[in-house]
Specification:
This protein is of the alpha+beta class and 232 residues long. It is 61% helix and 7% strand. It is built from eleven helices and four strands, in the order βαβαββααααααααα. The protein binds glutathione.
Length: 232
């Protein structure tokens, strides 16, 4: 039995942040399939391992602890695997970065596909996406990040904030050429950080494995098709 269990759909999207933190730390985890996730979701909250609406869910077998909500899990794994800054400010900023990343992917998928993208809606959204890119770029700049050196929060070593940032933007860069072009122009230091982290052996291996496991999907479904039409 592995140390951790992760329940997430077989796509990168919101689960990839957690896979990357686990992989970066060299932790081993078991993934559960769609039927197991659906069965957990159908249970009454009192019968779920933790009350939750949608995955990801993490089980820490060693710590006998279960958690939902991606940003909370990212911070927990950071604590557990030694990937958070020491100071309270850096730990809180790590939570901010995970919440920002979650907001970006919700906006990009119109809240999980409640609506579909049209060219008009996308054109109106692009300045907002660029603002998100600049929010990350400005945070890095405050801590001396450049395209070639440094980390998002000015730490000596990369942590959860860097892993989450790298997964957010590199996954979009890999799947959506128009976002790739926009990002390289708008947030060059963040694009450099994303690439540098992706070149580390654990994240490079995860990327290859995810590509073959998930067949090149990003978030799946009709919303991915509609996003590909405007940003592909
Ligand atoms: N705020 C939650 C969102 C969870 C969520 O929306 N999960 C999606 C997959 S990315 C889901 O399958 N939701 C099903 C549902 O809400 O019914 C988080 O950050 O973990």
């Amino acid at each position: 039995m592995h140390e951790f269990d992760l329940y997430y759909w077989p796509v990168p999207f919101r689960g990839q942040f957690l896979r990357a933190i686990l992989a970066f730390a060299g932790a081993r985890w078991t993934e559960h399939d769609v039927d197991e996730i659906a069965a957990l979701m159908e249970r009454d909250p009192a019968e779920q391992p933790i009350g939750f609406m949608g995955p990801p869910i993490l089980i820490d077998r060693e710590g006998d602890f279960v958690l939902s909500q991606m940003p909370s899990i990212a911070v927990y794994l950071g604590e557990r695997l030694g990937l958070l800054p020491d100071a309270p400010e850096g730990r809180a900023r790590t939570a901010k970065v995970a919440n920002d990343a979650n907001d970006v992917i919700d906006e990009l998928t119109l809240d999980g596909g409640r609506e579909m993208w049209t060219q008009e809606k996308w054109d109106a959204f692009v300045p907002r996406l660029q603002k998100w890119m600049r929010i990350f770029e400005a945070l890095g700049a405050r801590h001396g990040l450049t395209a070639d050196a440094g980390f998002l929060l000015g730490t000596a070593e990369p942590g959860v904030a860097d892993i989450v940032t790298s997964i957010l933007w590199s996954t979009l860069d890999d799947h959506f050429p128009k976002i790739a072009t926009l990002g390289a122009q708008t947030a060059p230091a963040i694009w450099g950080l994303a690439r540098r982290l992706q070149e580390t052996p654990p994240l490079a291996a995860l990327k290859q494995k995810s590509l073959s496991d998930f067949g090149g999907a990003y978030c799946g479904g009709e919303i991915e098709k509609s996003l590909r039409k405007v940003a592909g």
